[in-house]
């Protein structure tokens, strides 16, 4: 069976774009954290088990 | 260094290249990549990725070669049983490949490395799961530098996924025409207007579409710095975005085939038992299931042969089969979207970067179940041509189901067509089959007028 490998140069990395996305996400994550903290206050009262946001 | 041939698809990366040496596949690591390669191996990143089976493992075989001055190492990667390309993957396959790429980048960043490229062509499917095959994809992470491969990730994964999730019935084969990925602008123009009102779509598609084409390397921009936290946040957002994507809800003709259109339970049971028994007798190394649908017979084959390769034209059936195989823990099944009537061509430079489907599709057992009437009566392919193609795919056996014209399914296919198939009878089938095969076994199928054949290549 023939093996094919391919590699593509990513070229320019769209720096400006990543900068803007970074700034927008800064705001998004700021509010997400607040919402998460508020939620976790209520969650802890009901349930003591650890609910990390990692396990989606 | 004699008798090494550079692989025709391996010319883009200055870090090294893939070559053949006495039929085996190796990868050369150039001296220019030494620092990154050493970091990959010494940081423990390679070991952890290879142990998780999310990166192809390799063996250092430098000692077997006398190296040129610009060469650093020679490594031999573990073999991939069956090669498929991104334009042959179903939605769920591409989605998992995308999420894997993000996971790899996250794990790399924890070891102070980063993916320097994020092409879908660096992923293959092994044991039913996506895996990184390019050992030279990582480089040392520089504080403040943005993720170089970000745009490539979008054009290779995010946009094809978005298109497939929004445009019903899109065949992934169209992406073969965009080997460098599909642009934000083109994607944006193809999506329904309602897609605009979504934060992720705006951030990752409409904003880049607006910026696309503007010079990206001005001195001002080069001074822009993006922190590691920002890169990680970006990847977390992307990962959530992709996880939420779903294929369009399609009731395709095929993915409810067994529950709705099968002739009878008696017929299906008999067919399952007979196919299982014949497969057990021959215990093939590789079974190719052409027109596998949601893979009832691919699963049976997976228990009775080394590897199974399953293809169907319907991407939604392949989605179901792919996910079901993962759920059941089937490790020897490779699925992909492929059309035997219009097999993927050889693409890329010199027609040599991605090989044509029929040059890859080989097995010592080939299944053609409830397929022949579609080829002969819908597509008008003459029996000689059908059997010749199957004789080319198979190195030994073919299990072929003959569906006569009188069969209710054939009747459905013929209802809006004049019967231009005077030579589509069981007797004709047997005569033609014997031009290429010996009929080893045949059995009429209970509950139908169909006949199942076990054909062996060549003549007695």
TrEMBL record, chain B:
Keyword Transmembrane helix among UniProt keywords: no
Membrane-spanning residues: none
CDD domains registered for this protein in UniProt: AdoMet_MTases (cd02440)
Example of a GO MF term: methyltransferase activity
Gene3D superfamilies: Vaccinia Virus protein VP39 (3.40.50.150)
Superkingdom to which the source organism belongs: Bacteria
GO BP field: methylation
Keywords: Methyltransferase, Transferase
Keyword Transport: no
Listed name of the protein: SAM-dependent methyltransferase
Species the sequence originates in: Taibaiella soli
